[in-house]
Amino acid sequence: MPIKAVVWDVDDTLFDYTTADREGMRAHLVAEGLLAGYGSAEEALVRWRQITDRQWARFSAGEVDFVTQRRDRIREFLGRPELTEAEADAWFQRYVTHYEAVWSLFPDVVPVLDALAGSHRHAVLSNSSLTVQDRKLRVLGVHDRFETILCAAELGVSKPEPAAFLAACDALALPPAEVAYVGDHPEIDGRGAAEAGLLSVWIDRGGVYATVEPPEGPRRIASLSELPALLGADTRFGAPSTFG
Prior knowledge:
By secondary structure, the protein is of the alpha/beta class. The chain has ten helices and six strands. Helix 2 runs antiparallel to helix 3. The longest helix has 20 residues.
């Protein structure tokens, strides 16, 4: 069955989140006078991501809402449980200023969106909030490339749950077999999309998941430039990626 639409992850798939997060956090910690307390920006970022993962798990389990998990990760990161909601929000907004200053798309994004513009429909499914991702895609200049933008905070379900991927298919009025999903996380995106019945494409840019053994199901590519060929002719049993 031919693939008619591509649903995209955003962070570290379209948007270079890792670089922006690292450089934004470095600038923020310097501005806040906090860098010395973490040894280095890299160590601080490792801690920030570990805390983010823990707090996101609480959100995914339905224990807290999206904004609460964000406030709680700031309190944990700073070691200041007494921070008020207003203080946590203000700290985060100061970080966002530095983070947004270094936003950028990966260089292979616009060429592949151009290449697929006439042949495939496009949508976004992200484990974030619509407020965050809608604005990000507008600032990056690609918002109008997507028919719909779906995010976990509003859906009430997050990847890798099949319901998240199926919600994207429903929004496109297409069966999963006619939809491809492209994401950077081998399990959350790769296995999740495959188990939901979509053509799953794992974009492995050699980042933090480069040493992960690829799960069964997703096709693995090293660059989005490989995607048009993967979606051509026989999308499920065509030529394999040149990577992995």
